[in-house]
C-alpha cells in the first residue's frame, strides 16, 4: 500500500503527467464545444426541412448525439496518446539531464548526455556536456598539478630538515656556503607554496568576470607596474626602457595590471646578465599591442605554443618557467581572453618577446 501511494505521489509531481492532464482537459473542453455546436446546427437544419415527422426527428437527434459522443471520445483518446508520445519524447533529454546532475551530486562525472538535435534543448545539452567536460578536465589537471607540487615540495623540505638536524646535533659546521644552500632550498620551497596559491588564483581568474571596465590611460598603468618592479630590477642592475604610444583603453584595470606585472616579473627573473628589458606599446589594426622583451634563456619551439596552458611543463629541467608550471601565464591568458584580446610569444634569437593585445574600441 505504501509503495502504491509513493508511486501515485511521484506521478502527481511528474511534469509529463501534469502536461497530459492539462492537455486532456483542454482538448475535452474544445471537443465538447465543437460537438454542441455541430449537434445544434444539424438539428436546426433538419428541423427546417419540414418533411420529417416528430418521431423521425427525435430518432435523428439521438443517433446524431451518439455519433458525436462516440467520435468525441475517440478523438480525445487519440489526441491524448499523440500528445503523450510527443511530450514524452521532448522531456526524455531533460530527464537525462536530471539523472546526470544527480551523478554529479554523488561525486563523480557522468557520461555526456546524447541528443541529436540543434533546437533549444539540444543547445542546452551541448553547453551542459561542454561544461561537464571542462569541469572534469580542470579537476584532473588540478589533481595532477597538486600531486606534482606535493612531490616537488618533499625534496627541499627533506633537505632543509636534514641540514638543520645536522647543525642542531653538531654533526655539521655552519659555513657561508652551507647557509647559501639552505637559502636556495628555502627559496625553492617558497616558490612552490606560491604556486599552490596560484592554483586558487587560476580558478578565480577563470570564473571571474572582468565586467567592471573603464577607460584607462595605458601609459599610467604601465608606469605603475614598472615602479612596482623597480626595486627588483635595481637589485639585478637591469634597466627597463619604456616606449608607448598614447592611448586610453576600455579595460578592467586590476586584471590588466596583473597581466603586465606577471610579464615584467618574468622578464626580470629570467633575464640573462644585466641586459635591458624593453616595454613597447602601439596601435595595430584596432587593437593596442603591449609587449615585454628581453634576453633570456631559449624556449623550445614545441614548448612555445604550450606556455599559456595550465599544464605547461618544459621537457628540460633547466628551461625557464619550469618552476612556475605556467600558472602565471595561464592566469594572464584567461584575463586577456576575457577582454577580447590575444596573448603570445615571439622569439628572435636570444630575445623572448611576450605580447598581448586589447581592443581599442569599447565593446
Tell me what the structure shows.
This protein has helices spanning 2-12, 15-47, 54-105, 120-169, 176-207, 218-228, 230-235, 253-269, 301-304, 327-338, and strands at residues 214-217, 240-244, 248-251, 277-284, 287-295, 343-348, 351-359. It is α+β, with helices and mostly antiparallel strands and 363 residues long. The chain folds into 3 domains: 1-108, no CATH class; 128-206, Helix Hairpins (Orthogonal Bundle), CATH 1.10.287; 214-359, Heat Shock Protein 90 (2-Layer Sandwich), CATH 3.30.565.10. The chain is elongated. The model is unreliable at 313-326 (pLDDT under 50).
Task: Describe the structure using short key phrases.
363 residues, alpha+beta, Heat Shock Protein 90, 5-stranded mixed β-sheet, two-stranded antiparallel sheet, 10 helices, 12% strand
Amino acid at each position: 500500500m505504501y509503495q502504491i501511494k509513493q508511486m501515485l505521489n511521484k506521478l502527481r509531481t511528474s511534469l509529463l503527467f501534469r502536461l497530459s492532464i492539462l492537455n486532456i482537459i483542454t482538448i475535452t473542453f474544445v471537443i465538447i464545444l465543437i460537438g454542441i455546436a455541430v449537434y445544434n446546427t444539424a438539428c436546426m437544419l433538419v428541423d427546417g426541412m419540414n418533411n420529417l415527422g416528430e418521431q423521425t426527428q427525435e430518432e435523428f437527434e439521438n443517433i446524431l448525439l451518439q455519433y458525436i459522443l462516440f467520435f468525441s471520445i475517440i478523438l480525445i483518446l487519440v489526441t491524448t496518446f499523440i500528445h503523450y508520445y510527443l511530450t514524452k519524447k521532448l522531456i526524455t533529454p531533460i530527464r537525462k539531464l536530471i539523472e546526470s546532475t544527480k551523478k554529479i551530486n554523488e561525486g563523480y562525472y557522468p557520461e555526456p548526455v546524447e541528443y541529436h538535435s540543434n533546437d533549444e534543448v539540444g543547445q542546452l545539452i551541448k553547453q551542459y556536456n561542454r561544461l561537464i567536460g571542462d569541469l572534469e578536465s580542470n579537476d584532473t589537471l588540478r589533481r595532477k598539478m597538486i600531486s606534482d607540487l606535493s612531490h616537488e615540495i618533499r625534496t627541499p623540505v627533506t633537505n632543509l630538515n636534514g641540514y638543520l638536524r645536522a647543525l642542531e646535533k653538531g654533526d655539521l659546521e655552519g659555513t657561508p656556503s652551507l647557509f647559501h644552500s639552505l637559502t636556495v632550498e628555502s627559496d625553492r620551497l617558497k616558490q612552490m607554496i606560491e604556486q599552490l596559491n596560484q592554483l586558487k588564483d587560476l580558478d578565480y581568474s577563470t570564473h571571474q568576470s572582468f565586467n567592471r571596465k573603464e577607460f584607462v590611460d595605458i601609459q599610467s598603468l604601465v608606469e605603475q607596474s614598472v615602479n612596482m618592479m623597480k626595486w627588483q630590477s635595481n637589485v639585478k642592475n637591469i634597466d627597463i626602457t619604456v616606449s608607448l604610444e598614447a592611448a586610453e583603453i576600455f579595460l578592467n584595470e586590476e586584471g590588466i595590471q596583473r597581466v603586465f606585472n606577471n610579464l615584467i616579473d618574468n622578464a626580470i627573473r629570467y633575464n640573462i646578465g644585466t641586459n635591458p628589458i624593453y616595454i613597447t606599446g602601439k596601435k595595430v589594426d584596432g587593437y593596442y599591442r603591449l609587449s615585454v622583451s628581453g634576453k633570456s634563456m631559449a624556449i623550445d619551439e614545441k614548448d612555445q605554443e604550450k606556455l599559456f596552458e595550465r599544464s605547461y611543463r618544459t621537457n628540460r629541467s633547466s628551461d625557464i618557467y619550469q618552476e612556475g608550471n605556467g600558472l602565471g601565464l595561464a592566469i594572464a591568458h584567461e584575463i586577456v581572453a576575457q577582454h577580447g584580446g590575444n596573448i603570445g610569444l615571439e622569439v628572435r634569437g636570444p630575445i623572448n618577446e611576450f605580447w598581448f593585445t586589447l581592443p581599442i574600441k569599447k565593446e
